[in-house]
Amino acid sequence: MAEKRDYYEVLGVSKGANEDEIKKAYRKLARQYHPDVNKASDAEDKFKEVKEAYDVLSDSGKRARYDQYGHVDPNQGMGGGFQGGDFSGFGDIFDMFFGGGGRRDPNAPQRGSDLQYNLTIEFKEAVFGKEMDIRIPRTESCDTCFGSGAKPGTKPETCSVCHGSGQQEVVQNTPFGRMVNRRACSNCGGKGKIIKEKCTTCGGNGQVKKQRKIHIRIPAGVDDGSQMRMAGEGEGGLRGGPAGDLYIVIHVKSHDFFEREGDDIYCEVPLTFAQAALGDEIEIPTLSEKVKLKIPAGTQTGTFFRLKGKGVPKLRGVGQGDQHVKVVVITPSKLSDEQKELLRQFASLSGEQTHENEQSFFDRMKKAFRGD
Q: What are the boundaries of the CR-type zinc fingers (predicted)?
């Protein structure tokens, strides 16, 4: 197994990075490596690596443990790290050397696997929220046999070889003595049960593949990379075990006019020279309506104006962010003769020289070569 990279290295941030820096780095990398955008063979693995690093570093408690212990967290047990994990393999080792105890019942209920669904939504849908239906392909308990795998009217029988334990003892005589090993029962495949008459719907698996329609409510204010957990909407459990969870990862499309930074919205609007110099009142589009914005006389290009409360609703909290409007003064490229004359008069009154009639640089250079 390849050694895990340092989480700070994965996100490209320093160990002293604050919450905003970590979130910004994650959003950038998540967009870069998302499988719907990046078709490289390793894009999905990199996306998962970035997600794992963010899940740890964005949680103050997990981050503190990671800073102290690295990938091996003693609070998670031997080798647990920050991934969690199933250490059932240790039971076999203890059985082999110490003669039993700690084996798991092969017929015990088993929780289903978690699923991840990538959902792409429009910019304003993320701002205002949305209700919608999605379809998830997943395994579910068979409705015909209720997950038993047996034909209706019959039931699985206890394996006559392993007597329901799911394991066989294999005795070997070696130069060092008699060795007893345990392995999955060859008769029942480690299940402890034999199905003589299989369910025709699921073929004895106890599960079937289905497309499940799920109604979801996307809250107002979600951002790119936000994650929603739908408890019990993952893969179906085995032998009556609970279903796993569904994690919906939100991906937000960009907007032609608005840009988002946290709960604030940014945009640019053009101004003519006359509007900037003399002042004006202009109409500005916001996320929900159009509002009037007063431009003071003498406004310079690049000036920002704030529209308070016209940003994104706060996902965790009350109120909304702000909208920041940057004005850009546009210089006209085509002027009529009358417009040119008026500008010459303006320049003259301002004590400026336009140099319109001066010789070009190349004309002056030619004269210098001629010795004129």
A: 129-211
